[in-house]
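Quick one:
INPUT:
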């Protein structure tokens, strides 16, 4: 019994992932994008919500995982394009 419990605890510790933190657009812009702290952005369809159909999953340079709910991924990408052009990228 103890061996089974130890095996389960070891598996949990190896596979545990910290839940992602939700942020809003202005926090994303000011705290991450303008400080060049974004490594990757993945946009996925969010089936849990009828109003906000998309979710942007963000990975920072330090490995932190964040997400934002999006009403329209086209609008988010357009805003992102404008900001990047203003930043000279």
């Amino acid at each position: 019994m103890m061996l089974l419990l130890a095996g389960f605890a070891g598996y949990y510790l190896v596979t545990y992932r910290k839940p992602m933190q939700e942020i809003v657009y202005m926090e994303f812009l000011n705290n991450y994008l303008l400080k060049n702290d974004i490594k990757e952005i993945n946009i996925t369809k969010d089936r849990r919500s009828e109003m906000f159909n998309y979710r942007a999953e963000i990975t920072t340079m330090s490995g932190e995982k964040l997400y934002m709910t999006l009403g329209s991924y086209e609008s988010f990408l357009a805003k992102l394009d404008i900001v990047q052009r203003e930043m000279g990228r």
